[in-house]
Amino acid sequence: MSGHYSQPTGESEELAIVGRHLTKAYGLSERKAAKALEAPDPAAAVAAEGGFLGAHDVSFQVRKGEMFVIMGLSGSGKSTLLRMINRLNEPTSGELLIDGEDIVTASKTRLRELRNNKIGMVFQHFSLFPHRTVRDNAAYGLKVRGMPKAERHERAEAALARVGLAGKGHKFPHELSGGMRQRVGLARALAVDPPILLMDEPFSALDPLIRRDMQDLLSGLQAEDRRTTVFVTHDLNEAMRIGDQIMVMRDGKVIQVGAGVDIVARPADDYVSEFVSDVDRARVLTAQDLVRPALLTMSVKEPPDVALRRLADNEANGAFVFDVDDRLLGVVSDTDLLVAINADQPDLSGAVSQDYDTVEPDAVVGDFMHLSGRRLVPITVVDRERRLAGVVPRAAILSALSHVKETSHA
Ligand SMILES: Nc1ncnc2c1ncn2[C@@H]1O[C@H](COP(=O)(O)OP(=O)(O)OP(=O)(O)O)[C@@H](O)[C@H]1O
Ligand SMILES: [Mg+2]
Q: What is the homologous superfamily of the domain 12-129+195-279 according to CATH?
């Protein structure tokens, strides 16, 4: 058995969900399952008894507020694992803690409480009630909790507004497009406002453009709510777009856990590489992922002749210029410096130009790569205070997109 991976343990109070050695043997009695799991090849032993090993020895941790994605091919055990978290699926063995509380031994009453208030779930087919209005569908989880009608309608409308369905509450599901229906399902989960949300391939049935919209919607909501979410998908592009952490599964086991960029940069095995080869890197990599320090920077107070000499020493044609507060003023070119020297200017203020392109750290490579190579300096990454975060050289973009392994950058 290879490929087992355990995440580093963090501060326990930051952890929302902890799974330890979770195993699910389908179709066997407890006694038979326990025996089969002791065999040298548990999967074969479970199968020999007529069962199926859906998840085996899975350990993972989800931090509070994190979007944790479970990814893998069909049959890899994603749903098996997800449904253990609210015990729609009873683990055969292993431990599961939610905010430190042991879920495996929770009573029926406690479990109902958890499912109503703490752990929401969104499925691939949102299973809306066809004869109820969109508002009543969105309010369903609140009704189950016994919330009075006026209040639950108010909250349902607020949730519908958040998913872009303001004013659609009176409609019926069949009057909405597929993408809009999925929004109702999302609103239903949001209306309850559970601290934990489980989502099992919620966007898989949507066509690619609508799916992209839904991913953006979810990311936007997540930026506001920071809700602990476990999201199942078989699409690494989707995982990369929305996930903070991605756990890759195969045959009921964990193959790799990490941030999307780490998985793309260092796939653990051929199975993961296969996913990675399908990733549209231009859509998932951001400026932040490729940024490196700017090599040549100058203070606006610098004399033009000194500045020109430094350009020459660095074999550069241009450099970044900062004001006394370290804010980026612009760039200077060698020719502008020569003009400033000839005009006897004391500093660089007269030579600074805006001949550069800036992007914010979270800009997607595909959206700014066309700017590359047009200017004096590489594409410039600045934060909201116009402080320089670094540059993205064209070679870094080309190498990331061609998947040439990057060696270390300072
Ligand atoms: N109730 C069950 N009884 C027997 N086997 C099951 C049961 N539920 C799931 N399995 C098997 O366990 C394996 C893992 O199933 P699971 O539904 O977790 O996969 P998945 O990764 O969610 O796949 P998909 O992407 O198709 O949804 C599959 O081979 C499936 O056939
Ligand atoms: Mg599934």
A: P-loop containing nucleotide triphosphate hydrolases (3.40.50.300)
